[in-house]
Amino acid sequence: MDIFFSQIATGLSIASILLLVALGLAIIYGTTGVINMAHGEFVMLGAYSAWALQTYAGVGLIESLILIFIFVGLFGWVIERVVIRHLYDRPLDTILATWGIGIMAQQAIRLMAGGELRYVQMPETLSASISLLGVEISAFRIFVLVFTAALFAFTWYLMYRTSIGMKLRAITQNREMASSFGINSDRVYSMTFAYGAGLAGLAGALVSPLKSVSPEMGTSYVVDAFMVVVLGGVESLVGTIASSAILGQLTGFLAFYSNDTIAKALVFLAIVVLIRYRPQGLFATKVRG
């Protein structure tokens, strides 16, 4: 039972990180239809922001989260205003454009901060372990899990219980009709893209104490984020959290019985099979014609 609970805890830890990384992508991809290949670089910018604030300004990780969200969100807002908004009707061009933006972001970080690995110190108050059901769990991982759950709840409330979310869902269903009712679709899309980018920045900041920080770190995260979104369904926030849990537990148990490489390969295989037989995802929202 100790082993079972240990693997459940590991799976929940992986799931929380997957959800944290994928939530911003789910918002952008599910509402604007933009396949944002630079999402991993938004994660990377959040991690480097945490490192820079800690190294040069002495600001702790927890205290820097709001600043990181604002900084990466503003970066995403600028990208949307300058590049993305001109490509909403050209989905293939958005892939190329965001891929190029990601490369430029990597090179800019490499020029400013160097290419060597960087490390972010874990908050001292969260560096201990907590015993739950006989399993030792890092207090920081518990914090990430709770923070992710709170962030998801806030995002769900923003999407389904506020006027901004109502306007966004109206634009998603029929942009021309929504505009005829006076909804400024350009402004709503800008805010949505900025919010999704800010969420990605928070994800990068919170995973930075768990992994080394490098200009290329976002590449693996964008793949994981797309896996979560594809499995859960593009327009389903509930599907995003469910798919994160499924992939987290599956990865944890497969890695325990084999290794990380085989676990990742088997998860990829499962996603490929899913796309073949259910391309809309497991939790896609049904739309009546």
Describe the structure.
This protein is mainly alpha-helical. Helix 1 runs antiparallel to helix 8 (185-207) and helix 2 crosses helix 9 (218-232). The termini are far apart. The chain is 73% helix and 3% strand. Strand 1 and strand 2 (135-138) form a beta hairpin.
Key words describing this protein structure:
289 residues, mainly alpha, two-stranded antiparallel sheet, 11 helices
What is the fold's blueprint, element by element?
Blueprint: H1 2-32, H2 39-56, H3 61-82, H4 91-113, E1 129-132, E2 135-138, H5 139-160, H6 163-173, H7 175-180, H8 185-207, H9 218-232, H10 237-257, H11 260-277
Antiparallel strand pairs: 1-2
Strand order of the largest sheet: 1-2
What structural category characterises the helix and strand content? mainly alpha
Number of discrete helical segments: 11
Q: If you average the pLDDT, what whole number results?
A: 86
Helix content: over 70%
Low-confidence stretches: none
Counted beta strands: 2
Span from first to last CA? 49 Å
Largest sheet: 2 strands, antiparallel
Radius of gyration: 19 Å
Order of helices and strands: HHHHEEHHHHHHH
Overall outline? globular
